Amino acid sequence: MTEENIDFSTMASNLGFDEDEFKEVAQLLITVSLTDLENLEQGIKENDPDKVKDAAHSIKGAAGNLGFTELSNCAETIENSARSQQINELTSHVMTIKTQLQTISSALSS
C-alpha cells in the first residue's frame, strides 16, 4: 500500500460514509492500532503469545472493517503465528504494520 493508492472517497462510499467521516474513523484506527502495536511488541518481548494474538486480532478486525486489506492480512498472519505459539519470527510483519499505519497516517494528513 502506498499513500497514492489509498482512495478514501471510494473506501468511504463502500461503507456508506462520506469521506470526512471515514477519515475520522481511519484516524481512530491509527490511534487504537498504535496502542495495539505497543501491546503486540510487548507480548513478543515477554514471549506472551496470547497478548500478541489479542493485539493482532484487534488490528486485523479494525483494518479489515475499514477496507485496509493489506494491513488486516498482515495482522492476521501475526495472529495465526501467535495461535501456533510461533512469535519469534515476526519482526518483518511488525515492521510492515508500522509502515502501513504510517502510510495511512500520512495519507490522512495530505
From TrEMBL:
The organism is Desulfocicer vacuolatum DSM 3385
Q: A Pfam family name for this chain?
A: Hpt
Which residue positions does Phosphohistidine occur at? 57
Gene3D superfamilies reported in the protein's UniProt record: HPT domain
Kindly list the GO molecular function terms attached to this UniProt entry. Answer: protein kinase activity
Please spell out the taxonomic lineage of the organism that makes this protein.
Answer: Bacteria, Pseudomonadati, Thermodesulfobacteriota, Desulfobacteria, Desulfobacterales
Protein name per its UniProtKB record: Hpt domain-containing protein
Q: Name one GO biological process term.
A: phosphorelay signal transduction system
| HPt domain sequence ranges | 18-110
Kindly indicate whether the keyword Transcription regulation belongs to this entry: no
